[in-house]
């Protein structure tokens, strides 16, 4: 007879049944952490892709389209027969080859790409009915694009065509123009434009249709802007400046032989438009190499093999790609700071969760070891137990992130979620193996205030401290620009601070315990003794708190610095809360009407000209004539070159004359160039006034630039004293009312609207949002780490209070005991967090370019974009740590007081 099978209860099923709350709690923690970890690379990919598309789209197709051009006739053209210079079928075949070459190097938008024939020069036409604003005859260029009917609607007339073969001697061809060209150049259906020819009468181009583009912003119409919109072109060296109209006539490709007898120099073209929806920031290097290959590389060789050796490839797309790459390389390290900090805190929280589970089950695991359980077998069982809950939770978190943030590149999201899941699975087995590597009946007490640290701990601390300190010192010496080490800076500083604070805590507690021992009550002394009794895992919550506080302080300083730079740039541009500008003197009574609007506190009038000449030089100096009283108050309120009213007071019968120069406030550059001697100021209307520079300031509200001269308006002669601008203090409640009051001919700028124009790139705004989200996630996880640390000590605290209550301890004394016990660690973490945050900002500030994050372009008007420690970012998180620690301790004391002592002091309690 065979042996009956033994009834064995599976380990995992038994553990899930006996501890039903542990698995769901672990699953929830893993799911949330995995979702946050997977969402970070997905969000970065999304805003980088959007930033790349925005950069290319903002550049307009005339800058980003890849333009391939080749002569129409010549040794490399498809035909040298003058009677048939263009073979449209071969031109189409070459277009397909060009698309094939370009499509292998970058994404191509075939719908917006085009080919055809165009003229290289524009020529004047003799038709007197065309507009001539300066007396100069109008000019025209010609294009013969493919697919004109598919890309345009016929507004009137019909599309041009060729009813008979066209050759260089053909006297007449048909053409079309866009509605914008027809409107501005007075062209109608039936109009005839005579194209100058060589050795023969002009070629008559009859306009048979007026077209409306279907997609005027697309590359088909915008690669050559003149194709749909004519332009007024200034004539070089003309005095006064004269201009002529330049427009484009659209002709059929079969009509291009007629151009051979003209001086228009026709050429073939193939325009390749990049597909914006196919641009990916992760493929940026490939895009840059592809464009470089087309312009000067293997791609150019293959293009010339298809179109002719004289073909030329040109595009500004590479400039915009390089500019975006530089911006991304500056922004990415800043985002990686928050990512590294949040990842460190998440790893600490997962390790603490495993350590808490191992600590709660230490009696069970010690018993298993005493009964012969091996470390590999014990670790394998615990790994299977945690994997049952963690693996599905990690997959669920990853799925949630992919659902909320769909993306094309998901490798990093999978890797991040897998790292979270693996850490969660390994935390409990590793904690159990480290705690029970020796078979023991009881766990020895570790008292950090009295037990001397081991040599092993000293070696471990030095192993961590020396490389971290060396890396921070390297960052401080050489800066952080372009260095990926910047992302680990807060973590390294937090590691150093954690090791130092753990070493400082015991002597500090001993020093605090001496005066507490002389007090009458025992609560203070007992709380300090309890605070000094910490386990070896106390480093993990401290590391989590310091990392989170450092990252939050650095991130808050970055965000506040960005906001300050944008506010400063907006203020330098507007000069006040609002600005009303006219190109001529203000209407009578406008200042009073504007001052009466709700929300307006004060109005400073100024006469501003940018065409004044100072001294005998020909250089133009912006001059602002102001009322010294109101303008001095405005400069003091905006902190833009504040000055006393008296330094500009130029009133008097001889002010501005040769005997009494008008005092002036000037920029440093103007003061350096012209000195303090009396100078003649030549105004645009021909009048003059004598000025003397008496005061120098870096900025002034009336003039946005850094070069200016400010004088008393009362000392200016004639019309020069009439105000042209109004500077408002106080925010108008209704900007529309301000614009209606100022009139349609006025330029109205408000500080709020100017501020809103900055950071229009998705790369900048996305980086700020991701940074804020990562800092918030790290802060939340740090609070969770603090709660886990307090939860780990909760059973021991509850038992202590129960015992002390049997000895006569009151509930109020119990609350004070737990609160005072939690204060040393909380205050230590708060002080350390503030110090590490300040240190991180000081170390990283030389290499952080806030201007890149703050401004949409490097040319924005700002003179202040410096990373400095932000008080609120340092104070609020540190106070939050103290409040949470004290609050949890008070809540635990209250809850323990509601329960009876018998529950805690049950028989067989091994605490």
Tell me about this structure:
By secondary structure, this protein is an alpha+beta fold. Among the domains are: 60-116 and 274-315, no CATH class; 121-264, no CATH class; 583-745, no CATH class. It is built from 27 helices and 21 strands. Strands 1, 2, 3, 4, 9, 10, 11 and 12 form an 8-stranded mixed β-sheet that branches. The protein has a 6-stranded mixed beta barrel with strand order 14-15-19-16-18-17. Strands 5, 6, 7 and 8 form a 4-stranded mixed β-sheet that branches. The longest helix has 45 residues, at 762-806. The protein is flat, with a radius of gyration of 39 Å. The chain starts with 10 loop residues before the first helix and ends in a 7-residue tail after the last helix. 44% of the residues are buried. Residues 79-83, 446-450, 652-658 and 906-911 have low confidence and may be disordered.
List keywords for this structure.
911 residues; alpha+beta; 14% strand; disordered C terminus
Which helices and strands, and how do they pair?
Elements: H1 11-18, H2 22-58, H3 61-64, E1 66-71, H4 88-103, E2 114-119, E3 123-124, E4 139-145, H5 148-151, E5 152-157, E6 172-178, H6 179-185, E7 192-195, E8 203-213, H7 219-222, E9 231-234, E10 243-250, E11 266-272, H8 284-296, H9 298-307, E12 312-314, H10 317-360, H11 362-370, H12 375-404, H13 411-435, H14 455-478, H15 489-517, H16 523-531, H17 539-574, E13 578-581, H18 590-595, E14 602-614, E15 620-626, H19 628-638, E16 662-666, H20 668-674, E17 679-682, E18 688-696, E19 709-712, E20 725-729, H21 735-742, E21 747-750, H22 751-756, H23 762-806, H24 811-844, H25 850-854, H26 871-898, H27 901-904
Helix pairs in contact: 1-12, 2-10, 2-12, 2-13, 2-23, 4-9, 8-9, 8-10, 10-13, 10-17, 10-23, 12-13, 14-15, 15-16, 15-17, 15-24, 16-24, 17-23, 17-24, 17-26, 23-26, 24-26
């Amino acid at each position: 007879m065979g042996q009956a099978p033994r009834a064995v209860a599976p380990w995992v099923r038994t553990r899930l049944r006996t501890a039903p709350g542990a698995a769901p709690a672990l699953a929830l923690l893993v799911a949330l952490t995995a979702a946050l970890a997977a969402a970070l690379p997905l969000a970065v990919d999304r805003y980088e892709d959007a930033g790349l598309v925005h950069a290319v789209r903002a550049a307009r197709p005339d800058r980003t389209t890849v333009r391939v051009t080749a002569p129409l006739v010549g040794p490399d053209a498809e035909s040298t027969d003058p009677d048939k210079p263009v073979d449209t079928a071969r031109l189409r075949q070459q277009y397909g080859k060009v698309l094939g070459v370009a499509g292998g190097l970058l994404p191509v938008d075939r719908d917006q790409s085009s080919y055809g024939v165009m003229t290289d020069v524009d020529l004047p036409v003799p038709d007197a009915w065309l507009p001539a604003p300066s007396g100069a005859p109008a000019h025209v260029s010609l294009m013969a694009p493919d697919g004109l009917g598919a890309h345009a609607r016929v507004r009137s007339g019909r599309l041009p065509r060729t009813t008979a073969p066209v050759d260089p001697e053909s006297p007449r061809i048909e053409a079309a123009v866009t509605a914008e060209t027809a409107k501005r150049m007075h062209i109608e259906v039936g109009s005839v434009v005579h194209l100058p020819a060589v050795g023969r009468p002009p070629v008559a181009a009859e306009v048979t249709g007026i077209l409306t583009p279907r997609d005027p912003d697309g590359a088909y119409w915008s690669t050559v802007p003149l194709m749909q919109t004519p332009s007024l072109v200034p004539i070089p060296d003309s005095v006064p400046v004269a201009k002529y109209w330049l427009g484009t006539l659209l002709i059929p490709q079969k009509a291009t032989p007629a151009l051979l007898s003209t001086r228009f120099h026709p050429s073939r073209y193939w325009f390749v438009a990049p597909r914006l929806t196919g641009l990916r920031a992760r493929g940026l290097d490939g895009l840059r190499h592809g464009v470089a290959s087309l312009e000067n590389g293997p791609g150019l060789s293959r293009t010339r093999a298809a179109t002719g050796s004289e073909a030329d490839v040109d595009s500004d797309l590479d400039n915009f790609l390089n500019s975006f790459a530089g911006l991304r390389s500056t922004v990415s390290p800043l985002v990686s700071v928050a990512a590294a900090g949040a990842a460190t805190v998440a790893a600490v929280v997962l390790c603490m969760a495993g350590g808490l589970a191992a600590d709660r089950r230490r009696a069970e695991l010690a018993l298993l070891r005493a009964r012969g359980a091996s470390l590999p077998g014990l670790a394998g069982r615990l790994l299977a137990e945690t994997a049952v809950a963690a693996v599905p939770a990690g997959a669920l978190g990853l799925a949630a992130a992919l659902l909320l943030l769909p993306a094309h590149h998901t490798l990093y999201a999978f890797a991040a979620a897998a790292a979270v899941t693996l850490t969660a699975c390994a935390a409990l087995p590793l904690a159990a193996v480290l705690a029970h590597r020796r078979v023991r009946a009881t766990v020895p007490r570790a008292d950090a205030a009295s037990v001397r640290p081991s040599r092993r701990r000293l070696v471990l601390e030095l192993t961590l401290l020396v490389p971290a300190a060396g890396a921070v010192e390297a960052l401080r010496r050489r800066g952080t620009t372009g260095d990926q080490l910047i992302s680990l800076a807060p973590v390294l500083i937090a590691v150093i601070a954690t090791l130092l604070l753990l070493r400082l805590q015991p002597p500090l507690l001993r020093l605090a315990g001496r005066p507490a021992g002389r007090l009458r009550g025992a609560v203070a002394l007992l709380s300090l003794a309890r605070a000094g009794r910490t386990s070896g895992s106390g480093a993990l919550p401290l590391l989590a708190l310091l990392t989170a506080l450092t990252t939050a302080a650095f991130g808050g300083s970055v965000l506040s610095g960005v906001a300050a730079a944008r506010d400063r740039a907006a203020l330098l541009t507007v000069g006040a809360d609002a600005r009303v500008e006219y190109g001529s003197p203000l209407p009578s009574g406008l200042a009073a009407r504007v001052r009466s609007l709700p929300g307006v506190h004060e109005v400073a009038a100024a006469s501003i000209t940018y065409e004044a000449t100072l001294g005998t030089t020909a250089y133009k100096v912006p001059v602002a004539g102001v009322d010294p009283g109101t303008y001095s108050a405005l400069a003091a309120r905006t902190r833009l070159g504040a000055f006393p009213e008296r330094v500009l007071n130029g009133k008097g019968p001889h002010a501005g004359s040769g005997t009494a120069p008008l005092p002036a406030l000037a920029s440093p550059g103007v003061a350096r160039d012209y000195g303090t001697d009396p100078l003649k100021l030549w105004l645009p209307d021909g009048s003059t006034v004598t000025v003397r520079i008496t005061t120098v300031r870096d900025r002034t509200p009336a003039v946005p630039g850094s070069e200016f001269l400010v004088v008393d308006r009362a000392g200016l002669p004639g019309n020069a004293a009439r105000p042209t601008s109004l500077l408002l203090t106080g925010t108008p409640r209704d900007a529309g009312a301000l614009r209606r009051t100022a009139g349609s001919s006025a330029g109205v700028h408000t500080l709020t609207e100017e501020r809103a124009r900055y950071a229009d790139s998705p790369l900048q705004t996305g980086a700020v949002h991701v940074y804020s989200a990562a800092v918030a996630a790290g802060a939340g996880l740090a609070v969770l780490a603090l709660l886990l640390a307090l939860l780990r000590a909760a059973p021991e605290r509850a038992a202590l209070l129960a015992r002390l209550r049997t000895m006569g301890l009151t509930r109020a004394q119990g609350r004070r005991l737990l609160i005072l016990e939690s204060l040393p660690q909380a205050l230590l973490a708060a002080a350390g967090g503030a110090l590490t945050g300040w240190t991180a900002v000081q170390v990283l500030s030389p290499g952080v370019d806030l201007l890149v994050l703050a401004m949409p372009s490097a040319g924005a008007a700002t003179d202040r974009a410096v990373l400095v420690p932000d008080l609120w970012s340092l104070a609020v998180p540190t106070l939050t740590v103290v409040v949470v620690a004290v609050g949890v301790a008070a809540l635990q004391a209250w809850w323990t007081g509601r329960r009876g002592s018998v529950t805690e002091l049950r028989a067989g309690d091994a605490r």
